[in-house]
Write a structure and sequence with these properties.
The complex is a heterotrimer.
Chain A (H helix, E strand, L loop, with lengths): L3 H8 L8 H11 L5 E4 L5 E5 L5 E7 L4 E7 L4 E7 L11 E4 L4 E6 L13 E4 L5 H7 L5 E4 L4 E2 L3 E4 L2 H16 L5 E7 L7 H10 L3 E8 L18 E7 L2 E2 L2 H13 L4 E5 L6 H5 L8 E9 L6 E4 H16 L10
Parallel strand pairs in A: 3-12, 3-13, 13-17, 14-16
Antiparallel strand pairs in A: 1-2, 2-12, 4-5, 4-9, 5-8, 6-7, 6-9, 7-8, 10-11, 11-18, 14-15, 14-17, 17-18
Helix pairs in contact in A: 1-4, 4-8
Chain B lengths: L2 H15 L8 H12 L4 E4 L5 E5 L7 E7 L4 E7 L5 E6 L10 E6 L3 E6 L23 E2 L4 H7 L5 E4 L4 E2 L4 E4 L2 H17 L7 E7 L7 H10 L3 E9 L18 E4 L5 H13 L5 E4 L7 H6 L7 E8 L7 E4 H16 L5 H4 L3
Parallel strand pairs in B: 3-12, 3-13, 13-16, 14-15
Antiparallel strand pairs in B: 1-2, 2-12, 4-5, 4-9, 6-7, 6-9, 7-8, 10-11, 11-17, 14-16
Chain C lengths: L1 H7 L8 H11 L5 E4 L5 E5 L8 E6 L4 E7 L5 E6 L10 E4 L5 E4 L9 H5 L9 E2 L5 H5 L7 E4 L4 E3 L3 E4 L2 H14 L7 E6 L7 H10 L3 E10 L19 E3 L9 H13 L5 E3 L8 H4 L8 E9 L6 E4 H24 L8
Classes of the chains: A alpha+beta, B alpha+beta, C alpha+beta.
């Protein structure tokens, strides 16, 4: 599998609320494979392919976490607030980049006591000496994202924004490959990181019969990790539970049965926190049966997230297989 | 104990001891459907797992929704260690202090009994027993070799506590998951009482799913039904020696009727008047914000639904020895039935601000 | 099943009556005399007329439990533990008050707790038993101060070849002792089902005094902490590896020569044996071995997970191996003592 497309996707600028460039790039990739392309009010990119059978929504979010500038001081230093689940411990000394390219370093004030470390002790230095100079390059309200280049080895990939550009990548690959006859709506969602908002409105509009989100999940395979069974390289994760959703037993079983049938390696995933677009989709209107395919990823929400290429391949294969199955879930019989 | 209380107690024990953690409520749903089939006109289940039981009215036919949640808090396997002990995490608000020395059931390919063990006092050091043992440090012993375990148990299998119901003095009953299987029993009592009363409007008793993880069944069932009025039935905190100043409600003094922003004032008023008229005991539960129940989700569904909340006083909520008074269960069912039967035909006028 | 019945009986230190009554009835057909002494120990003897040595086997009848120490003005019951109990296991459990009455030890709902409370454990003074009484008078009509509350657990097979139940410490020892009394040996055998071990090895003290045996074997259920990711050096004993021979505990330092004898017999007869690898805890041997001028004493235990809690676990294999080992030791003992008769130093 060629991961160049994934490389390009991760390096695009697309914090929550400003996903346009990602949407534009994905549009050019998928145009030959779909019947209809729209962007809705919240900035979701909706890619539709007509068909008979079930209406299936596939969701992968375009946005990455970032920092929004809230203040520029007299000397040109910037204060910010996080967009999405930014771990402030990950910030000190990091490079971040704005939409038009300006790069800055995050610094921290002197701390009398390590316990005092809080968001308001951090600042962003874009290398200017005054507010006026700063305003040449950025303004309050603009967002910056991590700098983290794409690095590929025989089996692993390290980059910023694998969460969830890898989900977008899996969705694009599946769209190119699948011969599914169902009615498919690939939704590249916006604003997942700040509350799965794009998914909520897209699901309401589309009224799908079934939904599958593709996102990342954590692993338990690093030194003294919090107990969790997911490991890099052991296959695509089939989500059982996270904070936003309890996957219904039927959906779980369907995904596992298809994977077992096609000999696609998978692992059960139980996450004690976190959520995905399916969290919003499954509660839409009267409820939508939903599942999640998870790509095991270490160091999520850092500039150097890491995943295993085999897991990504397994995810694409499983997504294609699910879309080509008859998707008869027998939901009323438990 | 009279026949009605006996029957309510039996159904409650049946529901309480069965397993139905949030998202996995099938066995409870079957029990509820089977019982409600005998006292309503139509019963069905939606794709989210909610159970709907319709008792048709004989007049104006506005839609009244009653809800009580079927799901219980529980645990889930998240790791199997090389010696065959299971690590787990919780589904819903489980207090880690209630888990030590507790028998459980692991719902794998078969139902496997397990034990959350405890270190004996002989091995504890000074100060060890001041700190609660963290859930992440607990494991489940199923007494099987790793090979045998791999045949029957997987990551993601659901775990429930093993607890029979026990009667205490004065018609009190204790057991797990009274929150909110007792609410389901209240709906049953209400439906039974309604057989003897006239009511114009359709009553749909909904046993909801996934309340404990975010009132999720309530969101979807309220959207699907879009009723004209809804009453949620849940449990609330009854006072015990260690809750001084935190709750004013007592066991045995009747259901607690909620008032506050989550509650439509006309519904609260009507409960109050009905209780007075029929000499049924009630307590008042002022709630300044979110009620923490299905009522919170229902109130803002679609274009909004006038919602009320009736709660059973309950001791030791979210432990496996939740304790309530069967008299409160019966009185709640009766109050609900009279509330429904005495609603005016013109609901819109009744609910007008 | 003998172990099941014994496990499910309720009897704590100073209130061992129901266990004693059951044993009296069980033992009657196959022992020569049955006597209850001044503290309530049940003493059974066989072949008292034979020449010595006189061997005493002991197992204690009492289990840990709770004693009611106060009734509050609202009708809740305050209690204190009888024997060593970690208060953290008591939360959210039903307890048996008497034949017909059950109570619950609840705790404040999680919703009403401050986050700091969730990490602090509740101690015994903060806990209480709820029997559903309406008032202090109502409660007082059903229970008295000094009444007991017991763990409620069914004894059942568990896992592969295991059993779970309450009070395996020391109903497992009592069950073994009943089985041994069914056999015949060539010396006077005294079985002492002792009282009040859990509150200070009390019954054994007076039993050792008036029985005055030449040798004693204590049968116990002991700590097995071979769980999950606990380091092997902290296991004490391990399920499935056979009975455990004590090396040392807080009340006794066992004779290395005696221990060697146990090891030799076990090896000769092909019976699995492990050591109790730890120095914590104590048992009736603490009182027995220093009685009068001293009595040679060993302790053999069945490994037991989660001891002193609502539900413990033992292995059937360990139980059977323990029975066989003690039997073989008893068969060999007279030979051993004849080689050096009454010369206790050579033991």
């Amino acid at each position: 599998m060629d991961f160049e497309l994934l490389g390009q996707l991760t390096q695009l600028f697309g914090p929550s609320g400003s996903e346009e460039r990602v949407a534009e790039f994905i549009s050019t990739q998928v145009r030959p494979y779909c019947d209809k392309l729209t962007i809705d009010t919240l900035g979701n990119l909706i890619v539709q392919r007509h068909g008979t059978g079930k209406r299936i929504m596939i969701a992968a979010h375009m946005d990455e976490i970032g920092l929004m500038i809230t203040h520029i001081n007299k000397e040109g230093f910037l204060r910010f607030t996080p967009l999405g689940g930014v771990r402030i411990q990950n910030l000190i000394g990091q490079r971040v980049q704005f939409g038009q390219g300006r790069i800055g370093t995050i610094g921290v004030e002197k701390l009398d006591n390590p316990k005092d470390f809080k968001l308001d002790k951090l600042y962003l230095d874009i290398g200017v000496s005054s507010r006026e100079d700063a305003e040449q390059f950025v303004h309050v309200g603009e967002t910056a994202v991590f700098v983290g280049n794409f690095s590929e080895s025989e089996s692993r990939i390290i980059s910023k924004a694998l969460d969830d550009r890898v989900g977008c990548f899996v969705a694009i690959e599946a769209l190119k490959r699948t011969k599914s006859t169902h009615e498919l709506a690939f939704v590249f969602t916006s604003q997942e990181e700040i509350g799965t908002r794009g998914a909520q409105t897209a699901a309401y509009a589309l009224e799908p019969d079934l939904a599958i989100a593709v996102d990342v999940t954590a692993t338990g395979d690093t030194p003294k990790a919090h107990p969790m069974s997911v490991e890099l390289g052991k296959g695509v994760g089939i989500k059982v539970l996270d904070h936003s959703m309890v996957t219904s037993p039927q959906v779980k079983r369907w995904m596992a049965d298809v994977a077992t049938d096609r000999k696609i390696p998978f692992q059960w995933e139980v996450l004690e926190y976190g959520g995905t677009d399916s969290g919003a989709i499954h509660l839409s209107r009267g409820g939508v049966p939903s599942g999640v395919l998870s790509i095991p990823t270490r160091y999520v929400h850092s500039p150097a997230e890491m995943l295993d290429k085999h897991d990504v391949e397994a995810a694409v294969e499983l997504l294609v297989a699910l879309l080509e199955s008859n998707a008869e879930l027998n939901l009323l019989q438990r | 104990m009279n026949a009605q209380m006996q029957s309510a107690s039996e159904f409650l024990s049946l529901l309480s001891t069965a397993s139905g953690v949030s998202g996995y409520e099938s066995s409870i749903a079957s029990l509820v459907m089977e019982r409600f089939k005998t006292i309503t006109d139509e019963v069905h289940r939606d794709t989210f797992g909610n159970v709907y039981a319709l008792k048709k009215g004989n007049g104006q036919r506005a839609k009244l929704m009653l809800t009580a949640h079927m799901d219980e808090i529980g645990l889930i396997v998240n790791k199997i260690d090389p010696r065959g002990f299971l690590s787990f995490t919780s589904i819903g608000g489980v207090d880690q202090r209630t888990l030590l020395s507790q028998e459980v059931l692991v719902h794998g390919r078969q139902t496997i009994p397990g034990i959350i063990g405890s270190l004996p006092p002989h091995l504890l050091q000074n100060g060890d027993s001041d700190q609660a043992v963290k859930m992440v440090d607990m494991t489940i012993d199923v007494g099987l070799s790793l090979d045998k375990i791999k045949e029957v148990i997987q990551i993601g299998d659901i775990i429930t506590l093993r607890r029979d119901t026990c009667p205490l003095l004065n018609n009190l009953i204790t057991g797990k998951s009274m929150d909110d299987r007792a609410g389901v029993v209240v709906m049953m009592v209400c439906l039974e009482e309604l057989a003897y009363l006239k009511h114009s409007h359709d009553v749909i008793a909904v046993a909801t799913t996934q309340e404990e993880v975010g009132v999720r069944g309530a969101f979807t069932s309220a959207f699907t039904l879009n009723p004209d009025l809804a009453v949620a039935i849940d449990v609330t905190h009854a006072s015990t020696p260690d809750t001084k100043g935190q709750t004013t409600l007592d066991l045995g003094k009747g259901p607690a009727v909620a008032l506050g922003p989550n509650i439509h004032p006309a519904i609260y008023r009507h409960f109050s008047e009905t209780a007075q008229e029929h000499r049924l005991p009630i307590q008042l539960e002022p709630i300044p914000g979110a009620s923490g129940t299905d009522a919170w989700a229902i109130q803002v569904s679609q274009a909004g639904i006038p919602t009320g909340l009736l709660s059973l006083p309950l001791r030791y909520m979210h432990t496996s020895v939740e304790t309530l008074d069967l008299n409160d269960v019966l009185n709640s069912g009766k109050l609900l039935a009279h509330f429904i039967s005495s609603l005016p035909d013109d609901l819109e006028g009744f609910l007008c601000y | 099943m003998l172990l099941k019945t014994l496990s499910e009986l309720n009897g704590t230190s100073g209130a061992e009556g129901s266990v004693r009554d059951f044993l009296l009835q069980q033992l009657e057909p196959f022992v020569d005399t049955l006597v209850v002494d001044k503290m309530g120990n049940l003493i059974a003897t066989k072949k008292a007329h034979l020449p010595g040595p006189k061997i005493m086997l002991t197992a204690h009848m009492d289990e840990v439990a709770l004693m009611i120490t106060d009734i509050t003005s609202d009708g809740f019951l305050k209690f204190q533990p009888v024997g060593g109990i970690d208060a953290r296991i008591l939360v959210s459990k039903p307890v048996q008050m008497n034949e017909t009455l059950v109570g619950v030890i609840g705790s404040k709902a999680i919703h009403l707790q401050k986050s700091s409370e969730r990490h602090k454990s509740l101690n015994v003074d903060q806990l209480y038993i709820d029997i559903g009484a309406k008032s202090k008078e109502d409660a007082a009509s059903k229970v008295k101060l000094g009444d007991y509350a017991y763990f409620m657990t069914k004894c059942e097979p568990f896992g592969e070849g295991l059993y779970k139940g309450k009070a395996f410490d020391d109903r497992v020892g009592c069950a073994l002792l009943v089985e041994l009394l069914k056999k015949d040996y060539s010396f006077p055998l005294v079985a002492a089902f002792t009282v009040q071990e859990e509150v200070g090895l009390r019954g054994a003290k007076i039993a050792a005094y008036h029985v005055a045996p030449d040798f004693a074997i204590v049968l116990e259920g002991t700590v097995a902490a071979d769980v999950s990711d606990r380091e092997e050096d902290g296991w004490v004993t391990e399920l499935g590896k056979g009975p455990a021979c004590s090396l040392m505990d807080r009340t006794t330092l066992y004779s290395p020569k005696l221990i060697q004898w146990v090891v030799d017999v076990a090896r000769k007869k092909g019976i699995p044996l492990q050591f109790r690898r730890g120095a914590s805890g104590g048992n009736d041997a603490g009182s027995i071995h220093v009685s009068k001028a001293g009595i040679p004493t060993i302790v053999l235990s069945v490994p037991c997970r989660y001891i002193h809690s609502f539900v413990s676990v033992i292995s059937e294999h360990d139980y059977t191996a323990c029975l066989n080992l003690v039997d073989e030791l008893l068969v060999d003992l007279p030979r051993k003592l004849r080689i050096s008769p009454m010369d206790k130093e050579d033991l």
